[in-house]
Structures are given as C-alpha cells and as structure tokens.
Amino acid sequence: MPASGSCGSRSGGYRSTLSGVSSDAMDVVNRWRASTFDRATVEDILAEDVEWIVPGPGGATTLRGIDAVLDWYSGGGAADEGVPESLGDPETLEVSEERGELEDFGEGRVGSLNRLIYTRKESGEVAYERSGRLVYTVRDGKIVRYELESLDESG
Questions:
Q1: How far is CA 62 from CA 38, 39, 50, 54, 96, in A?
Q2: CA–CA separation, 125 vs 138, rounded Å?
Q3: How far is C-alpha 8 from the chain's CA centre?
Q4: Under a CB-based contact definition with an 8 Å cutoff, are residues 25 and 109 in contact?
Q5: pTM
Q6: Of 135, 132, 139, whose CA–CA distance to 117 is shortest?
Q7: Which residue ranges form the domains of the chain, and what is each CATH number?
Q8: Which pLDDT band holds residue 21 (cuts at 50, 70, 90)?
Q9: d(C-alpha 133, C-alpha 125), whole Å
Q10: Distance between CA atoms of residues 55 and 116, nearest Å
Q11: CB-hemisphere CA count at 13 Å for 117?
Q12: Pairing, β 103-106 against β 93-99
C-alpha cells in the first residue's frame, strides 16, 4: 500500500533547523513514512484520535481516528483524490511520488512539499501532476494531526 500521504517511493530524508540533528517530531514522521501500515506500527505512531485532513471534491475532508486513516489509504489515499475525469480510466495510469525533504517547523510541526506524478501505462507519457504540502503535528511521540494541502489551482 502507498505510504503516508503518498503513493510510491519511500524516501526518509529530512533536515532539521538544529545543525543536522533530528528532532523527536521528525523521528516520528520518518517512522510513519517508512511504515507498512501494519496495525501495531500504526498504533505506535498515530494518536488514537488523530485528525487526517485531506483535499477532496468540494473542499477539505477531516478523517478522525486510526481506522479512518487506514481506510483512506486502502482506498487509494492521495493518489485517488482530485484526479481529473478527463484523464479517463484510472487503471491506465501509474502513480509515483516525489517526496520533498522534511523540515522541522518547531513546536512539533514537521512538513514537506511532495508531488504526485500520473503517467500513462501504455506510453509512459506524464498525464498529470499534483503538488501538495504535508504538515504533521506530533505530541507526546505520536502524530496527532496530518494536513495535506493542494498547491494546484484545481485542488
């Protein structure tokens, strides 16, 4: 299954505002980015009442709780949100991700700029690209909030 707020490669690179020393919040987010969605790992990383805010048709949607987050990913996650119908059958597309470097914003907030790239399986042609800013909030060693904000005009 695709990774946290993404679908595709699972790079774990990050940078910190403290001379290359990782913050606890960045460590938690990197564990999430490397997770394989097994229940025990997810429960160790996400707060039970986590808020997962994602763009959707007609505006942002807030998912609450671990079960809602896992259901969102099992349904395709960010890769399936907001793809124009003009692209045709989604089964004809490959989706990859370019993950930005994590940045520590302080006060338990960590984020990155990411891009989803939709490529036609038959031709290899890039059919569509979407950019988004992901911001995680970490408290007491767990992710309590995730927000995916579309940076595209259409999203």
A1: 22, 21, 10, 7, 24
A2: 38
A3: 10
A4: yes
A5: 0.74
A6: 132
A7: 24-150 (3.10.450.50)
A8: very low
A9: 25
A10: 14
A11: 11
A12: unpaired
